[in-house]
Design brief:
Layout (H helix, E strand, L loop, with lengths): L16 H6 L4 E5 L2 E6 L4 H10 L2 E4 L5 E5 L3 H8 L12 E3 L2 E2 L5 E3 L2 E6 L2 E5 L5 H12 L4 E3 L3 E7 L3 H9 L11 E6 L2 E6 L8 E7 L4 H12 L5 E3 L3 H6 L35 H10 L3 E8 L11 E5 L2 E12 L4 E9 L8 E5 L5 E7 L5
Parallel strand pairs: 3-15
Antiparallel strand pairs: 1-2, 3-11, 4-9, 4-10, 5-8, 6-7, 8-9, 11-14, 12-13, 13-14, 16-19, 16-21, 17-18, 17-20, 18-19, 20-21
Length: about 375
């Protein structure tokens, strides 16, 4: 299998890529047509332990912002998500599923409310800007849509607070979970949120101004020396254990928010109008046919899940795994995927068939894994 990417201009570099290369990046993925570092010198297991103990800096510029601004901005944003945004206030980050008319998932971004008429959708891997453009055009909404020059840099791990306070001052400690505030960096105002794609705590700096990327990276790494900082990337082991879902893997447009555990972000009482409302209310009434579960299954360490793996209970196919990895902490493989109705019991005995034909014994688990 080819393991190199042909680096054309179409695969966009980030404001940090020069530094990421100097730091010894060993491979990339592509998200939103942009590079996402996937590994440096250490193994995914070494990175996992380091992330849980220290602090890491991640180039997550591929979490692109879709900026929605104008008189009808709030209306468009509410139209796009089942989550009730009535009480959202400036300074909030909100995890928002985006749905199509059938209730299928378009994306699962983080929404930032910058002002009453200005929002960012910090997106997972799909072309939300085009969807928003089409909606605005079709509905005749007065909005300006763009992809601003904003590139998030994540600072994740238990030492993130100390590191960030040493750079930006003690006030960053007061930022609440999924809230943002503003700091000054090289004479510019920058947004910092307490969020990120790990369960270890940390921040995301939404750097505005690509020309500042190198300086920000250097500042963070220099200040991070005393905290044993390392360059890293979203860690597959930590993400699966923590029950963080990945658009394109655990969910696509064939899935609805109710089956992937996002019902708490769906207004079902008809108080807000959004695309897919009828479909989602309908699914809620009947109950979803599938639900997301963890699967804990025996060694040896499984390979990368690049095609869903069948999960059986006895001889019956009851679901499929869409992401999996060996957890050195649980000393078993951890997987995540959809399970058919009738088999929704944590602890249920199952088997997982890997691409090489090997069958591993396992059991269903609630998410996140304990
Ligand atoms: N940070 C930012 N943008 C992103 C991601 C991110 N865009 C793409 C992708 N990640 C979106 N996916 C998720 C999934 C889960 C969470 C964030 C982004 C998450 N959710 C909180 C939780 O599960 O505890 C819920 C917060 C809430 O209540 O609103 O952390 O990582 N910028």
């Amino acid at each position: 299998m080819a393991d190199g990417l042909n680096m054309s201009r179409r695969i966009r570099r980030t404001p940090y890529t020069d530094r990421v290369e100097i730091a010894g990046v060993k491979g990339f993925s592509v998200v939103n047509h942009m590079l996402l570092p996937k590994a440096y010198s250490r193994s995914v297991e070494e990175d996992y332990w380091h992330l849980r103990e220290h602090v890491q800096v991640w180039d997550v510029s591929c979490q692109r912002q879709v900026q929605i601004q104008g008189k009808d901005a709030a209306e468009l944003v509410q139209l796009m998500t089942p989550r009730n945004l009535t009480n959202a206030i400036v300074g909030n980050c909100l995890y928002v599923p985006l749905t199509d008319v059938a209730g299928g998932l378009i994306n699962d971004p983080v929404l930032l409310k910058l002002s009453d008429d200005k929002y960012w959708l910090s997106i997972a891997d799909s072309d939300v800007l085009l969807w928003a453009e089409g909606l605005a055009l079709g509905k005749g909404l007065n909005v300006q849509l763009s992809e601003p020059d904003v590139s998030p840099l994540a600072i994740q791990g238990p030492k993130a607070d100390d590191l960030m306070a040493s750079i930006f001052g003690e006030s960053i400690r007061k930022i609440g979970f999924f809230e943002f505030s503003w700091v000054f960096f090289k004479g510019t105002r920058q947004l910092i949120a307490r969020s990120g794609y790990s369960r270890q705590g940390g921040f995301e700096i939404y750097l505005e101004g690509a020309h500042l990327g190198g300086e920000l990276w250097d500042t963070v790494l220099e200040a991070g020396q005393q905290y044993n900082i390392a360059p890293g990337c979203p860690n597959l082991i930590e993400r699966i254990e923590g029950g963080l879902l990945s658009y394109g893997n655990e969910m696509t447009r064939a899935n609805n928010p109710l089956e992937i555990g996002l019902e708490k972000y769906c207004s079902l009482d008809g108080t807000v109008n959004y695309i897919g409302r009828k479909a989602i209310e309908n699914i809620a009434q009947k109950g979803p046919k599938r639900k997301i579960y963890g699967v804990l299954f025996d060694s040896p360490a499984c390979p990368t899940c690049s095609k869903p793996w069948v999960v059986k209970h006895g001889e019956v196919a009851v679901g499929q795994i869409t992401s999996a990895v060996f957890s050195p902490r649980l000393e078993k493989n951890v997987g995540v995927g959809l399970v058919e109705k009738g088999y929704w019991t944590a602890g249920l005995e199952v088997s997982v068939t890997l691409p090489d034909g090997q069958i591993h014994r396992g059991q269903l688990s609630n998410l996140p894994f304990a």
